[in-house]
Design goal:
single chain; mainly alpha; 2 domains; three-stranded mixed beta sheet
């Protein structure tokens, strides 16, 4: 066997090492199995039994699925979008949606809603993640609840506390959140970045 030219040997060794590093980097980039997935890429299978908690949970899931796709791949221009009629910007609407999601969660876990609301100082992606997890945790809590008769919306302002019946959650924060998600869909379409066309709010699945 003839000896390999030293120059060729160095080049071959470098390419081998570089190839291994590149392959390892590609694996890290492509394999997202170790990363926690955001909820509501799709709606999970329906509960087997119909209970007050499961019905309310499923309605909240509808909000989560809509929010996930309405806010997926938003660009800075989309987030800064203004409707031009002195209304809320998309950013202000997203902040409001976070507050609504927190109220829904607090009602589900029977915790007070402290006023004024202390908004987290985070970027959009982190706010989106927090909002989605608020929605998912609220859905899980309501689905597991055997009895909703003691659930109320509780407000806390300083030492003063007040309660509102659970019914108001449905026609108030929950319906309001679905309404505002529709605004985000409209805003991003107006900004030239429409929502994924495969979204089906009827089936809770997305054709990708």
């Amino acid at each position: 066997m003839t000896a390999m030219n030293p120059i060729y040997l160095i080049v071959f060794t470098f390419l081998s090492i570089f190839g291994c590093v590149t392959a390892q980097e590609a694996t890290v980039t492509i394999d997202s199995s170790t990363m926690p997935a955001l909820p509501y890429h799709e709606i999970h299978a329906a509960p087997e039994t119909i209970t007050p908690g499961s019905v309310l949970s499923r309605t909240i899931d509808g909000l989560g699925y809509r929010y996930y796709w309405a806010t997926k791949d938003l660009r800075p221009d989309d987030i800064a979008w203004l409707p031009g009629n002195n209304g809320r910007s998309a950013k202000q609407t997203l902040d409001h949606l976070y507050g609504l999601s927190l109220m829904i969660l607090n009602t589900a876990i029977q915790e007070p809603n402290v006023r004024p609301l202390n908004m987290p100082d985070v970027g959009f992606e982190e706010l989106r993640k927090m909002t989605l997890h608020n929605i998912k945790n609220a859905s899980d809590a309501f689905r597991a609840a055997d009895d909703l008769s003691n659930h109320k919306i509780i407000f806390q302002r300083g030492e003063n506390q007040s309660e509102v019946p659970l019914w108001n959650l449905m026609n108030g924060p929950l319906a309001d959140a679905i309404y505002h998600v529709g605004q985000i869909v409209s805003y991003r379409r107006s900004a030239g970045n429409p929502m994924h066309p495969g979204v089906s709010v009827f089936s809770g699945k997305t054709a990708e």
